[in-house]
Amino acid sequence: MLALFFILMGTALLLLLLGWAVSKGGYWLISGFAFRPKEEQEKLIEAGFPQKVGKLLMATAAGMVLLLPLLFTSFPYAVEVIIGFMLIFLLGGIIYLSRYEVPEKRKKSYIISSGIALITFVSLGVLMFFGYQETELIFKKEGIEITGMYGEEIPYGDIQNVKLLEEMPKATVKIDGFGTSLIAKGKFKLDGYGPSLLFIQKGKPPYLQIKTKDRHIFINSPDPDITRSWVEKLK
């Protein structure tokens, strides 16, 4: 949790510093501003566009800092709330600030900013939908199938050992995966195990460890009895 805190705090501080620099006249920090004709730059400054961009960045940072204490509570969706706030506030603010664009580019700015926001939220929605789908372990004739995101089939002949763990090893690096405060799916590097494949509902032991010829796989169900039944069937 401390790692997440420092990552999110660092992001907030970066936004705060960037917003402060823009509000103090560093308008070139705004994407594309330095390449606009001087006449357009003057119109935007007169309308208050770059100044409001700076305030938007600082307000986003302030909101994130105020929400950070959620990480140390029992609220399960703290990370999602903080990141969601950042994206909604920033992207919504950018759409709103299109009204301060030069008149001949205002419509185009609305279309582009709205399009970026739509693509971002749709992509995140799809990712969250598939990421939060419950993983199932299906027993087939030749092997087991792990369903859902990052799922695959594993022949019985590749399985060397299975056991139950009451506590998950610490994940040090996410190699290629989907991870939130509640879910971990995909390839992670674990202390004592190296690169491993995870299908984990966090905080819901026990966890089934499957050792194959070349790696470790960790999987569990929200229902502990189901996880235990998987072990018995594999044995």
Word description of this protein:
By secondary structure, the protein is α+β, with helices and mostly antiparallel strands. The protein has six helices and nine strands; from the N terminus they run αααααβββββββββα. Helices cover 47% and strands 22% of the residues. The strands form two sheets. Strands 4-8-9-7-6-5 form a six-stranded mixed sheet, with helices on one face. It has a three-stranded antiparallel sheet with strand order 1-2-3, with no helix packed on it. It is elongated and about 75 Å long. The model has no long low-confidence stretch (mean pLDDT 93).
Topology:
Layout: H1 2-23, H2 38-47, H3 49-67, H4 78-97, H5 103-131, E1 137-139, E2 143-146, E3 153-155, E4 159-165, E5 171-179, E6 183-190, E7 194-201, E8 207-212, E9 216-219, H6 224-234
Parallel strand pairs: 7-9
Antiparallel strand pairs: 1-2, 2-3, 4-8, 5-6, 6-7, 8-9
Helix pairs in contact: 1-3, 3-4, 4-5
Organism: Neobacillus piezotolerans
Pfam family, one: DUF3784
Domain Bacterial Pleckstrin homology: 137-223
- Unreliable sequence segments: none
* Molecular shape: elongated
Task: Give the N-terminus to C-terminus distance in angstroms.
Answer: 35 Å
Helix segment count? Answer: 6
Strand order of the largest sheet: 4-8-9-7-6-5
What's the count of strands? 9
Helix content range: 40-55%
Largest sheet: 6 strands, mixed
Percent range for β-strand residues: 15-25%
Mean pLDDT: 93
Radius of gyration: 24 Å
- Tally of structural domains: 2
- The structural class is alpha+beta
What sequence of helices (H) and strands (E) makes up the elements?
HHHHHEEEEEEEEEH
Organism: Neobacillus piezotolerans
Pfam families: bPH_5, DUF3784
Protein name: Bacterial Pleckstrin homology domain-containing protein
Keywords: Membrane, Transmembrane, Transmembrane helix
